[in-house]
Amino acid sequence: MKLADLTQDWSANRGYPKSQVVLVLFRAAQQLRRTDASWARPAYLLVGTGYKLISEWLLGVELPVRTEVGPGLRLRHGVGLVVNPHARIGAGVMLRHGVTIGNRRAETDCPVIEDGVELGANVVIIGSVRIGADARIGAGSVVVHDVPARATVHPGPVVVRPAAEDRSP
Questions:
Q1: pTM for the full model?
Q2: CATH number of the domain where residue 51 is located
């Protein structure tokens, strides 16, 4: 197990020590889970249990160890975060508090979040949807359809107002 593998999210979470601790434990548990050595199973049970107790029970961050997550994951606050273990999350993704990424019909009917996506607080993404690279999903949005790369999604209607100089008193 390499230190670089454990700290691949560290710099992306500079200034967020809670996120750094959660993600180091997450990466350690992932590495131990994938290791075939005889000592890895007992170590995984110890680290995985510690991760689960700290992240889920204490901090309210439900990010299962078996979830496929790219490097540079950014957690902002994290409280109330729920991710289905079958979801796939790319590199450099930002997850804020209250985010739910889950299935819709079947256990494996889960989203794919591509690289560089930012999810606002209380975003819900459910079902077999793909969120394209560098998309931005605004706070409170509920996403049940694919989102193209570099798109912005927000929960409310678009309101177009005339420029300040065009307004009548």
A1: 0.88
A2: 2.160.10.10
